[in-house]
C-alpha cells in the first residue's frame, strides 16, 4: 500500500469515527431552555471533524513531523511483519490480562511472548525476565507503594500474606 | 522585598528545609514512577500534614507539585511515555535526542531550563502577583473561549504538516474530550451505553496509548540496525549539553519562561498549553525547522521551560485569588483551607508568613531539584542500553501499572491499547499526535466557556466580540487560519 493510500485509509478511519460521533450527538439536545444543551458542542465538533476529514481525503497535503522513518517500504521483511504481529498480540494480551488474569500472570505472559517468540531468546531468559519484572512490580508498586494493580489469585494470596 | 526576606527566614528553618526536600524528592520520584500521580500523592499525604505547622505542610505539598514537573521529563525522554500532559511535547524531540545518544544532554537542558524557568516564575509570583491577579479576573467565559480557540489555532498553524491535517487532529482531540458525562448537566454523551465510558476517556490511557504503546509498535517494526541507539555519555558530567546545544537553547529557554509564566496564570490547562505553544513557536522561529520531531534541542528547551514557568504561574491565581488553576492546585487550596488559611486578596495582610514562606520555599526547592536531578541523569540514561527484547516488556509493564493505577479500571487498559493502535496508524501516516492531547485537555474548558457565553447572551454569538481581549484573540485565530491557507504556505507545504 502506498503511503498516500495509507494516509487516506487513516483519514477514512477518522471520518468514520467522526460520523459515528455526529450520529450519536444528534440524539442529544442541542439547545435547552437555559442555553446550549449537552449535544451542542459534540455536534459542532463532530461536524467540523467530518468536513476536515473530507478535505484531507481529497487533498492529504504534507505529512507532519511525527512519522519519522515512514518513507521506507511500508511492508518490511517477512521477519519484521512477524515480529510486529507478535508485538500486536502482546498488546491484546495486556488488555485481556488486566481484566481477567491479574498483574503477575499478565506481566509474565507478555514478557514471554515478546522475549521468547518475538525476539527469539531462550525460554529460561523469557520466563526468568517475566518473573523478575512481575516480582519487582508486585513488591515495589503493589505492596510498598500500595499502587492499584490488576488483581488475580496470586496478588490476593500475596497481599493476604504481607498486608 | 522585606517580606520576601522574612519568607526566607521562615523557609530556612531546619524543619521547613527538611519538608521542602521531602516534597521535591517525592515529587521527582512520583514524576518518574508510573501510577502515582501528583494528585494521588498529595491526597495521600494530606492527612499526614494535619498535625504539622501550616507553612511546613504547604511547603511540602507544593514541593511535590513542582517536583513532578521535573520527574515527568525523564520517562518522556527515555521511553516516550509522558509522565503528565505537559510532558507530552517533550516526547517528540527529547526521545529522538535520546536515540541519537544525547539523552543526557536532553535531560540536562530540561533540568537547567526548568530550574531557570521555575526560579523566574517564582520571582514573577513575588513581584507581579497582585496586578496579574487583577488581569486574570478580566477573563470571562467569552475571553476564555476565544483564548482557547486562538491557542489551538496557533498550535495547528505551526504544525509541520498541512493545516487541514493539523486541524483534523485538533477536532479529533476535541471530539474525544466530549465522550462521557456532559460537564454542565451530567447527561451521558457518546458512551454507546458502555458504563466504562461514563467518565469519558481518561487522559492517562489516552496519552500512554498514543505515545508509549504506539512507540512499542514502532520499535517492533524496526530492524536491529534501525533500532540502534547511539550510546549516551554516562559520566558525572555526561548530562552537560555541548557548546552548540547550549547556545541553541538559550533563547528558547528565555522565550519559554516568559510565555509559560503568563499562560500558566490561566485556569485550566495553562502549563499544557504553554508547552505546546512554546514548541510551536520554537519551530516557527528556528533556522532548522526540519530538525523538529527528529531531535531538535530547541524542542526540549522551550517546552520544558514553559511548563515549569507555567507551574509557578498557576500559584498566582491560587495564592492571590483563591482560584485553583487545575485539579492539583484545587487540592492544595483544600489543604490551605483545612489548615485555616484562606487564599485570596487578604492572605498578604492576614498571613504573610504563609504566603512569603511558600514563595521562598519555591526558590530553595528549585535549587534542591537541580542538585537532586543532575547527578542522577547518568543513571537514568543507562535505561537506553537495555536491548529491545528486554526494554519493550518493561515499557509495557510500566504502561500497564500507570494506566491501571490511574483509575483501577481494567477498561482503561483496553482503551490505552486501542489508542496504541490508533496512535501507531496516525503517526505512521504523518498526523501530529501532540495536537490531539492538547485539544483533549483544553476541550472541556473550551466547551464550558462557549456554552456559558452563549447562555449569557441567549445564543447571540456576537458576545465573543464584546471585549477587546476576546476580539483580539478571535482576530488572531482567524488571521492564523487565513495565513495557514495562504498560497505561499501551501506552496511550501507541497514542496
Provide a compact summary of the structure.
The complex is a heterodimer of chains A (163) and B (495). With 163 residues, chain A is mostly helical.
Plain-language structure description:
The complex is a heterodimer of chains A (163) and B (495). Chain A is mainly α. Chain A has six helices and two strands; from the N terminus they run αββααααα. Chain A has a two-stranded antiparallel sheet. The longest helix of chain A is centred in the N-terminal third of the chain and has 23 residues, at 3-25. In chain B, 72% of the residues lie in helices and 1% in strands. In chain B, a hairpin with a 6-residue loop joins strand 1 (180-181) and strand 2. In chain B, helix 1 (2-11) packs across helix 17 and helix 4 (54-79) crosses helix 6. Chain B is globular and about 65 Å long. The interface between A and B is large, with 82 and 83 residues.
Please indicate the count of domains of chain B. 1
Strand content of chain A: under 5%
Low-confidence stretches of chain B: none
Radius of gyration of chain B: 22 Å
The tally of strands of chain B reads 2
Nearest-integer average pLDDT of chain A: 87
> Order of strands across the biggest sheet of chain A?
1-2
Helix proportion of chain A: 55-70%
Q: Average pLDDT value of chain B?
A: 81
Amino acid at each position: 500500500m502506498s503511503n498516500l493510500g495509507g494516509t487516506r485509509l487513516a483519514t477514512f478511519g477518522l471520518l468514520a469515527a467522526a460520523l459515528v460521533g455526529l450520529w450519536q450527538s444528534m440524539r442529544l439536545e442541542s439547545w435547552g431552555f437555559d442555553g446550549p444543551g449537552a449535544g451542542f458542542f459534540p455536534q459542532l465538533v463532530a461536524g467540523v471533524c467530518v468536513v476536515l476529514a473530507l478535505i484531507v481525503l481529497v487533498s492529504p497535503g504534507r505529512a507532519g513531523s511525527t512519522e519519522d522513518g515512514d518513507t521506507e517500504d511500508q511492508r518490511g521483511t517477512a521477519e519484521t511483519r512477524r515480529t510486529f504481529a507478535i508485538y500486536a498480540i502482546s498488546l491484546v494480551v495486556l488488555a485481556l490480562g488486566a481484566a481477567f488474569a491479574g498483574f503477575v500472570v499478565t506481566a509474565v505472559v507478555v514478557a514471554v511472548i515478546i522475549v521468547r517468540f518475538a525476539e527469539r531468546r531462550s525460554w529460561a531468559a523469557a520466563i526468568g525476565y517475566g518473573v523478575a519484572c512481575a516480582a519487582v512490580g508486585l513488591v515495589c508498586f503493589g505492596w510498598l507503594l500500595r499502587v492499584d494493580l490488576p488483581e488475580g489469585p496470586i496478588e490476593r494470596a500475596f497481599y493476604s500474606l504481607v498486608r | 522585598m522585606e517580606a520576601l526576606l522574612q519568607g526566607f527566614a521562615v523557609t530556612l528553618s531546619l524543619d521547613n528545609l527538611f519538608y521542602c526536600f521531602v516534597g521535591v524528592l517525592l515529587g521527582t520520584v512520583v514524576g518518574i514512577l508510573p501510577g502515582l500521580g501528583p494528585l494521588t500523592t498529595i491526597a495521600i499525604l494530606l492527612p499526614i500534614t494535619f498535625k504539622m505547622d501550616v507553612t511546613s505542610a504547604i511547603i511540602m505539598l507544593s514541593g511535590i507539585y513542582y517536583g513532578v514537573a521535573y520527574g515527568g521529563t525523564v520517562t518522556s525522554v527515555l521511553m516516550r511515555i509522558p509522565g503528565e500532559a505537559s510532558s507530552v511535547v517533550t516526547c517528540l524531540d527529547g526521545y529522538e535526542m535520546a536515540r541519537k545518544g544525547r539523552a543526557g544532554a536532553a535531560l540536562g537542558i530540561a533540568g537547567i531550563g526548568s530550574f531557570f524557568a521555575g526560579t523566574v516564575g517564582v520571582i514573577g509570583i513575588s513581584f507581579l502577583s497582585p496586578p496579574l491577579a487583577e488581569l486574570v479576573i478580566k477573563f470571562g467565559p467569552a475571553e476564555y473561549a476565544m483564548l482557547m480557540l486562538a491557542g489551538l489555532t496557533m498550535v495547528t498553524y505551526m504544525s509541520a504538516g498541512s493545516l487541514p491535517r493539523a486541524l483534523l487532529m485538533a477536532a479529533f482531540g476535541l471530539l474525544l474530550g466530549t465522550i462521557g458525562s456532559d460537564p454542565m448537566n451530567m447527561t451521558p454523551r457518546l458512551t454507546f451505553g458502555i458504563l466504562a465510558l461514563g467518565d469519558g476517556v481518561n487522559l492517562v490511557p489516552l496519552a500512554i496509548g498514543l505515545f508509549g504503546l504506539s512507540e512499542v509498535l514502532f520499535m517492533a517494526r524496526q530492524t536491529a540496525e534501525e533500532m540502534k541507539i547511539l550510546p549516551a555519555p554516562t559520566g558525572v558530567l555526561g548530562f552537560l549539553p555541548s557548546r552548540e546545544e547550549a547556545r541553541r537553547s538559550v533563547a528558547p529557554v528565555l522565550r519559554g519562561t516568559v510565555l509559560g509564566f503568563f499562560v500558566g496564570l490561566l485556569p485550566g490547562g495553562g502549563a499544557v498549553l504553554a508547552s505546546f505553544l512554546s514548541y510551536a513557536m520554537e519551530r516557527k522561529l528556528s533556522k532548522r525547522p526540519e530538525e523538529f520531531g527528529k531531535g531538535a534541542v530547541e524542542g526540549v528547551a522551550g517546552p520544558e521551560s514553559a511548563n515549569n514557568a507555567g507551574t509557578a504561574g498557576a500559584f498566582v491565581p491560587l495564592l492571590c485569588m483563591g482560584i485553583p488553576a487545575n485539579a492539583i492546585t484545587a487540592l492544595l487550596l483544600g489543604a490551605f483551607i483545612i489548615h485555616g488559611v484562606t487564599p485570596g486578596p487578604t492572605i498578604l495582610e492576614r498571613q504573610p508568613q504563609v504566603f512569603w514562606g511558600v514563595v521562598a520555599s519555591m526558590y530553595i526547592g528549585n535549587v534542591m531539584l537541580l542538585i537532586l536531578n543532575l547527578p542522577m541523569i547518568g543513571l537514568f540514561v543507562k535505561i537506553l542500553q537495555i536491548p529491545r527484547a528486554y526494554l519493550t516488556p518493561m515499557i509495557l509493564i510500566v504502561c500497564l501499572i500507570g494506566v491501571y493505577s490511574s483509575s483501577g479500571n481494567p477498561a482503561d487498559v483496553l482503551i490505552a491499547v486501542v489508542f496504541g493502535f490508533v496512535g501507531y496508524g496516525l503517526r505512521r501516516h504523518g498526523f501530529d499526535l501532540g495536537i490531539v492531547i492538547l485539544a483533549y485537555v483544553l476541550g472541556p474548558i473550551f466547551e464550558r466557556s462557549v456554552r456559558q457565553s452563549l447562555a449569557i447572551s441567549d445564543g447571540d454569538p456576537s458576545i465573543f466580540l464584546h471585549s477587546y481581549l476576546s476580539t483580539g484573540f478571535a482576530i488572531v485565530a482567524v488571521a492564523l487560519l487565513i495565513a495557514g491557507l495562504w498560497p505561499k504556505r501551501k506552496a511550501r507545504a507541497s514542496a
